[in-house]
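Good morning C.,

I know you're traveling, so I'll keep this short. The sequence:
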Amino acid sequence: MRHFPIRIFAALGSFLLLAGQTLAQTDDSVWINAQIQAAIQAGRNSYFLPAGVYNLEKQIVIPAGTKNFTLSGAGPEETLLRTPTVRIKQAIRVGIEGQNHSKWGLRNVPNTAVFPVSEGSTTIRLDPSEPPIAPGIYYLHDESRVRHTDTVSTGYNHGELVRVTRYNGVSHSVSVQVPLGRDYDFAPVKLAYVEPQVCQNITVEGIGFDGLTAGGQGSYGLVYACLVEGLICRNVKVRNFFTGGIFTLWCNNTLVENADIADGVSGGAGEGYAIYFAQSRFATVRNTRAANCRHGFLVHTGTMDVLFDNCVGERASFDTHGFDERRITFYRCTGLSTGVDIGNAAWLAGGKDIKLIESRFDYAIKLYANTRGTEIIKCSFRQLTVRSDANRVGAIPTGGIVESAKIVDSELISGEWCLNSFRTINCGTITFQNCLLRNTNASWGRIIELTEGAGTLNFIGCRFVNDSTYVPIRVSTTQGLTLNIQNTTFRSQGGGQGAIQFLGTYNGRFSLMNNRFETTRSAQATPLARFLFNDANATGVEYNSEVVFQVQAADNLGQVVVSRQDAAPIVPTSSSPGGTTIPLTNEQRQTLLANLQRLRQLRAKISAGQTRLQPTGPNWLSQIGRVWPAR
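The tokens, ready to paste straight into the viewer:
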């Protein structure tokens, strides 16, 4: 049923048609808010805004503490909210207006001091000086914050809504319904009692928003939600917005689906964010598009447990923002003329357990300081950029490395390089498994160029294809990089003379086991092609390198002449300039030969289609991370 007695007749454009008279443009937020308040006070659980164009000078507000309420329109093309004369924040506000930088909204309610508590815990001990607390909804938070490399800007990044189920008088502790998502150990740690302010089970659907204002500015977006447990934004459309097309702060259990957010009016720092989650937990975004804005899908200030499913960014990036966001999964997503940032160059707290699965991105995936546990599975993208930072005095943290990442069953296809130390590769361990890496530029470029960096790079069961004459991998870093390559094929479409080159400055360790180099180059060409050119002071072992000449430029083999180098393990010797000899015992030699036989058998099975490498098990999709239901 429609409840709009103030507007007795239909809304037409920016005017009212009433008793045959045309009335001047008005601020429709006044009567809409009155109608929503009346509906809530009357105990109704919904309010319908009929087709029409509605001009706002203030926000439409669903008040704090509202439960089980739906605000709906006739559809995002039919029910349109506009701000043509006055720039406002989001058109619809659900709950209070909190402030993350000052914690206003948390500090001004009763807070109970508690002991530090670990991730996964369901018990929180109260400080002995505190009285017992009742069951209800609280916000658990500590004083952890991240400071920008500008040494001025800061943001809190530890917090989540929790439901206290009971108090234990013996241990002076409380039980919470869901295991905690992180450690809380930056004193003081507190439980803020927020149940009176929390909105529960709120839906906004079937509404469009155009934020353009006079002078070309834009209002912020469509929905702002703060302290909401169970928010649904469905079938909505946003155009000409400033930032926060849909924005949540301190929320749990959010579902965004069938949203279309495009055309940010500004793209500076903090601007042009389409989907924007801050210090929230348990969210799902699916079947949603973001276009022509700075960040299309953004998790911020320590947000946790988010699934982006079948989302498309068109010139609008996918981003975890470097505040130690955790368990974020991008599944079946597409980035058109855009890529992914995991972490941030200026906010250095990184992120944990970020996963990209069955997704495609036209541009790079970038890993920044203090990211760990990243997994990229069955994806296609242009490049992987790895950047670590150290000694950024005044920042919190001051720096860090990319600790670990795994890229599996994926394709990196680029017209320049697929992995490059232009952004400084300092890492723990990065592993490529069963991946294709290709440079499609026939006149220039390598696949990997490592001029600096430390850590470990592993390539297992991969395939390198280089269309140019350049050696696919060249390493010159002096920082002790370890390079392991096993059961991998290199193909030079341009007639290159080698697979790997270590320049004289490289001083790390390497292990090259059971690999193959294919080239269109003739076996009689001068100089003779080789698998490895070791001009460095590197320590390592090369075993069973196979060189295949005169292959066709296509991906199938033509007539070949084979040169094998598998009579014995090959190590750098005095004939390899700057090399170091590694003596092998008979036991080590027999172990290498046994491993070689196993690898050959595995490669034969893979070639015959009898098996394939499964790095995370056959049920990898079930491991993408727990994402809690929207309600």
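Safe travels,
E.
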